[in-house]
Specification:
Uridine Diphospho-n-acetylenolpyruvylglucosamine Reductase, domain 3, globular, 7-stranded antiparallel β-sheet, 4 domains, alpha+beta, binds flavin-adenine dinucleotide
Length: 449
């Protein structure tokens, strides 16, 4: 980055610009990757963002939007240097509209704060990435984040009504704010959702809210084999469970031991299932689901404390994997929900071909699986690449995609052509060039050079 560009940034941002080494280090990483930027700026409004991006387009330096830096694929890491644009000071909740059931927010608002703010009014913002307590709504929109409740409520895109975006050239565009329906011209708003900060910087969002559910019914179901899981998955979708979390083979024995689960020793898989709603409806639906099954064992939470205990089991999965996996990678593939058992079978067979141990868990109801591949530190890089390619090819052959939640970033761009056709990649690159003619916004992400 040129000295004159830095001087111009100082002029625009004053003490909200920094190139101090210690601070640069703080903005150099996400949950997985690292690279130090040349400078960091802290805008407080869309005008700041616009001036920065106009300057970057003029001078040709990279700008990388950053929410809370919790991404898992390097999206907010400045792999080509340049300026990190931290949206953390644009974190205000601007307006709750109880008549239209909308909430207008700045991009740096923490998703958990949004959820608890609207809960005070009996309202619910459902999208719930596991990072919601510390990730930002801007990052959630840019990654189209989803979570446990996606099986019933959908992902971030499903709760987005309006959006203000600053384009890489500095123009600010705003898409209709509080409309639940709109067929006026092309739907440009949605190209920014899941665009991983490569097409524009989100500076304001209008979110859709719904009434908060008041009652829950939760059960832990144990399965001896994959065929019974297949039957359960289709039943769950037809009666609209609000969560359907699968815990795979290698994790189950540890949980059975640590939590003294009252399930038979031949239990190989667990599914944590929850219904939500009003009055006695959730319990009625849970009973309906359980009664349609024979040959599975289950434990139903009798009160809130037992419900919490069941969710505690789910929360313990990552610590268990960390304790059993010194070296490894984690993937978040997605397949059509009915193909989850076949995908699990494939994963269980992988150690026959490669010296690895697989820990799988995830959102069985929507087909999004977290696959943790653990190996010895001497496991050759080349074999890991072969394994990953085999995993992604199998996923795509089942009608799936490379990522259900975490995006492509720098982590998966070398595998993109397994899923996307050449024509699709060409069109997406063309779109990028139209919006970002000098390629200054988050370069080096999604597409291989
Ligand atoms: C422990 C843990 C659990 C997680 N669980 C989940 C999960 O369950 N589901 C899930 O979907 N993800 C999950 N994630 C991944 C991550 O939290 C999400 O991708 C989240 O949406 C990132 O938000 P962030 O604010 O941290 O964004 P960052 O990591 O800062 O950025 C992510 C991407 O968004 C872009 N970006 C950020 N803000 C803006 C903006 N205002 N305008 C344009 N682009 C922007 C960045 O350039 C980058 O490409 C998890 C991560 C961790 C560490």
């Amino acid at each position: 980055m040129s000295h004159s560009a830095k001087l111009s940034l100082r002029e625009i941002f004053g003490d909200r610009f920094s190139d101090e080494t210690g601070l640069l280090f703080v903005y150099s990483y996400d949950a997985k990757f690292e690279r130090t930027p040349d400078a960091v700026v802290f805008p407080v409004n869309s005008d700041d963002v616009s001036r920065l991006l106009s300057l970057a387009t003029e001078e040709g330096f990279p700008v990388v939007p950053r929410g809370a830096g919790t991404g898992q694929t390097g999206g907010s890491v400045p792999v080509e240097g340049g300026v990190v644009l931290s949206l953390e000071r644009m974190n205000h909740i601007l307006e709750l509209d109880c008549e239209n059931l909308t909430l207008t927010v700045e991009p740096g608002a923490i998703t958990g704060d949004i959820k608890s703010y609207v809960a005070r009014f009996g309202l619910y913002y459902p999208p719930d990435p596991a990072s919601y307590a510390f990730s930002t709504i801007g990052g959630n929109i840019a990654e189209n984040a989803g979570g446990i409740h996606a099986v019933k409520y959908g992902v971030t895109a499903d709760y987005l009504l309006g959006l203000e975006v600053v384009l890489p050239t500095g123009e600010v565009i705003s898409f209709a704010d509080k409309l639940y329906k709109n067929v006026t011209g092309y739907d440009l708003r949605d190209i920014f959702v899941g665009s991983e900060g490569t097409l524009g910087v989100i500076t304001r969002a209008v979110l859709k809210l719904i009434p908060a559910p008041e009652a829950y019914a939760t059960a832990l179901v144990g399965f001896p084999d994959l065929s019974s899981i297949r039957r359960l998955a289709s039943t769950i979708r037809s009666i609209s469970a609000s969560a359907c979390e699968l815990i795979g083979k290698n994790i189950v024995p540890v949980l059975m031991r640590e939590f003294q689960l009252p399930l038979p020793p031949e239990t190989r898989y667990l599914i944590l299932i929850e219904f939500d709603g009003f009055g006695d409806e959730p319990r009625r639906l849970l009973d309906l689901m359980l009664s349609s099954f024979s040959g599975v064992s289950f434990f139903v939470a009798r009160d809130e404390a037992e419900r919490e205990r069941l969710w505690d089991i789910r929360r313990n999965i990552s610590p268990i994997i960390r304790a059993n996996c010194a070296c490894g990678v984690s993937e978040d593939i997605v397949v059509p929900p009915a193909s989850v058992p076949e995908m699990l079978q494939f994963l269980e067979n992988l150690p026959d071909e490669f010296p690895v141990k697989i820990f799988s868990f995830g959102h069985a109801g929507d087909g999004n699986l977290h696959v943790n591949i653990c190996y010895d530190e001497l496991f050759p890089e080349r074999e890991l690449e072969q394994l990953l390619e085999a995993l992604f090819r199998k996923t795509v052959s089942l009608g799936g995609a490379l990522s259900g939640e975490h995006g492509v970033g720098i982590a998966k761009k070398r595998f993109l052509n397994i899923y996307l056709s050449e024509e699709s990649i060409r069109l997406q690159r063309k779109l990028k060039r139209i919006l970002d003619p000098r390629g200054i916004l988050n370069p080096g992400k999604i597409f291989d050079e």
